[in-house]
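To illustrate the input format used throughout this study, we show a single complete record. The first block contains the structure-token representation of the backbone; no residue identities are included at this stage. The design step must infer an amino acid for every position from geometry alone.
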């Protein structure tokens, strides 16, 4: 879903168990992809993502295609979601700055970067 200016990463309004609210968007998301110029549901079935081995590069490609130079990866509210080791090494090779934290910490990091005008993308998981 397009969201305003192509270079602007949308702001996260709030997060609670099972629910992520994005400023300017009326419906809440359970799992969400945010990127410069847009936001959409993060449907794990598209790439076969599971809690383990976790987030894969195929989950992140869309963020990079939309111009993200920084990626914030949520490990879930309780840290149950893993991040595949190859994902981090591939992002490092591409020169992409990466943060990997619990969801509540990701929201703070992401919003600080987005509101600072940085080209940031995020994958947020709002449960476990």
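Output of the design step:
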């Amino acid at each position: 879903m397009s969201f305003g200016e192509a270079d602007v990463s949308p702001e996260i309004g709030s997060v609670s168990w099972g629910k992520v609210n994005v400023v300017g968007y009326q419906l809440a998301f359970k799992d969400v992809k945010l990127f410069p110029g847009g936001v959409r549901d993060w449907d794990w079935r598209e790439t076969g993502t599971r809690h383990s081995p976790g987030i894969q590069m195929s989950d992140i490609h869309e963020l990079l295609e939309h111009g993200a130079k920084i990626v914030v990866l949520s490990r879930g509210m309780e840290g149950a979601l893993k991040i595949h080791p190859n994902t981090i090494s591939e992002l490092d090779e591409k020169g992409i700055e990466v943060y990997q934290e619990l969801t509540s910490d990701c929201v703070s990091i992401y919003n600080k970067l987005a509101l600072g005008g940085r080209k940031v993308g995020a994958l947020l998981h709002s449960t476990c």
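Structural context for interpreting the output: The chain is about 25% helix and 25% strand. Residues 103-115 form the longest helix (13 residues).
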